[in-house]
Write a structure and sequence with these properties.
8-stranded antiparallel beta sheet, 17 strands, Beta-lactamase, 14 helices, 2 domains, Nuclear Transport Factor 2, Chain: A, alpha+beta, globular
């Protein structure tokens, strides 16, 4: 409890551009509700970085406030840079996305059936060597990218190439090994020369080789609801090509601006990265090359999260709006980065996370919002339910719900008929916890019950 009180006291924003009290409040509240020690953010509006800020504690003991100039591991957001590095090699004529893996690494399973494009779109079938949200024991020892490729790339495929989508860090390790062979230089050096230096990304470091530089944030992990504890340090080699990079939120925002302006690669390369991958049967995957692609409330987006031991990051780009949000945090297996990014997108750009399409789920969220503010629309309720929500009950609901913040999502767990009504059980996800809501719905759409179960 002492650690968390220090974190709350330290949650003062350090801003480098336009201050936004609503963003400050959203970030501070999310850290408080989730217990994540720190967050560093950058906001791009109309192709310009308009806000960089840091919140909370980069180190809990002894306390060290987070600042915007600190480098955080960005995890799998690094995959965008791996793709861009390979697209430069495509532009140079040194390889093709249609090249088979066997041209470079013939010993791998079905290497003559799998293309580089399939590696970069998670459709190759190679088993993921790191699907967990914690650091496996093997990560305490250093490894090499080739050892990863040999151990997981020589296993039987999880599915025939091109027939399914399954996230695979292994595929990106193999892709970066291929890039080293084709480019004739260490992969990080290729990225530095072709991307980081031209874009002025001066803070980027090879996290895979050396971790977070001294003076940077400590990465944390939590067990259940215990206080955050320093996470073990991953040894070199495990993040090559798949989660290789660390940098400031500001420098990741510079990359986002280059995606929006298409200022680095050729138009054809950007088109390739941004086009949704289709499986052999024509089904869409929601993924391009190294990025999730889609539309949110009519706004086209590129998105990717990232996780390394002790760190979680979120990056969302709205290319047609010329806007972007970067959020970097220092605790693994947490959703604070995603929550803050969604809230910033709403505050800064009026873009909301995907809302439920089911009218009953929408009603649940609307009722919860009303109750968090201490009132209820009696027209939605039958007589019994109206009498249930007395002033005292409304006050209890407000006191219970208001501190939880905004719901992240809702889904129906059960429904059945009873007493001429439909009984439903809902799971509602909040930043710090999930709650159960039960409803009885009359044929006319009114509710005979709306209860929260502790």
């Amino acid at each position: 409890m002492r650690l968390m009180s220090l974190a709350v006291l330290a949650c003062l924003a350090s801003a480098a551009a336009l201050a936004d009290p609503a963003i400050d409040e959203a970030a501070n509240q999310t850290l408080r509700l989730t217990g994540v020690p720190a967050a560093s953010i950058a906001v791009v509006r109309d192709n310009k970085i308009v806000l960089t800020a840091a919140y909370g504690l980069a180190r809990i003991t002894p306390p060290l406030a987070a600042t915007p100039d600190m480098k955080f591991a960005i995890g799998s957001i690094s995959k965008q840079f791996t793709v861009a590095g390979i697209m430069f090699l495509v532009q140079d004529g040194k390889l093709s996305l249609g090249d088979k893996v066997g041209k470079f690494l013939p010993q791998l399973t079905q290497a003559n059936d799998i293309t580089i494009r399939q590696l970069l779109s998670h459709t190759a079938g190679y088993q993921d060597f790191w699907p967990e949200d914690y650091s496996p024991l093997a990560f305490r020892n250093p490894t090499t990218p080739r050892a990863i490729a040999e151990k997981w790339g020589e296993k039987k495929l999880d599915f025939p190439p091109g027939t399914a989508w399954q996230y695979s860090n292994t595929g990106f390790t193999i892709a970066a090994l291929i890039a080293e062979k084709a480019g004739g230089a260490p992969f990080f050096d290729q990225l530095r020369t072709r991307i980081f230096i031209p874009l002025g990304m001066k803070t980027v470091v090879d996290y895979n080789a050396a971790g977070i530089p001294p003076g940077g944030p400590t990465g944390y992990e939590r067990y259940a609801f215990s206080p955050p504890r320093p996470a073990p340090l991953d040894r070199p080699g495990w993040s090559f090509g798949s989660g290789e990079l660390a940098m400031t939120a500001h420098d990741l925002a510079l990359w986002d601006i280059s995606l929006i302006n298409r200022s680095l690669l050729s138009p054809a390369s950007y088109n390739t990265m941004e086009t949704e991958t289709k499986l052999n049967n024509g089904k869409g995957t929601g993924y391009g090359l190294g990025i999730d692609v889609g539309s949110r409330g009519g706004h086209r987006f590129f998105e990717h999260s990232g996780e390394e031991t002790g760190f979680v990051a979120e990056n969302i780009v709205f290319p047609d709006d010329h806007d972007a949000v970067v959020v970097l945090t220092n605790q693994d297996a947490s959703r604070a980065a995603r929550i803050i990014a969604q809230q910033v997108a709403h505050i800064a750009f009026n873009i909301n996370a995907a809302a439920p399409t089911d009218k009953n789920a929408t009603l649940v969220l609307s009722m919860l919002d009303d109750l968090a503010h201490g009132h209820v629309d009696s027209a939605r309720l039958n007589e019994n339910a109206q009498s249930y929500f007395s002033p005292g009950v409304l006050a209890d609901y407000r006191r219970s719900l208001a501190p939880l913040g905004q719901p992240l999502g809702v889904h129906e767990r059960l429904h059945e008929d009873r007493g001429g009504m439909v009984f439903r059980v809902w799971n509602v996800s909040y930043p710090a916890r999930d709650v159960t809501v039960t409803t009885y719905e009359l044929p006319d759409g009114r509710l005979g019950q709306f209860l929260i179960e502790p």
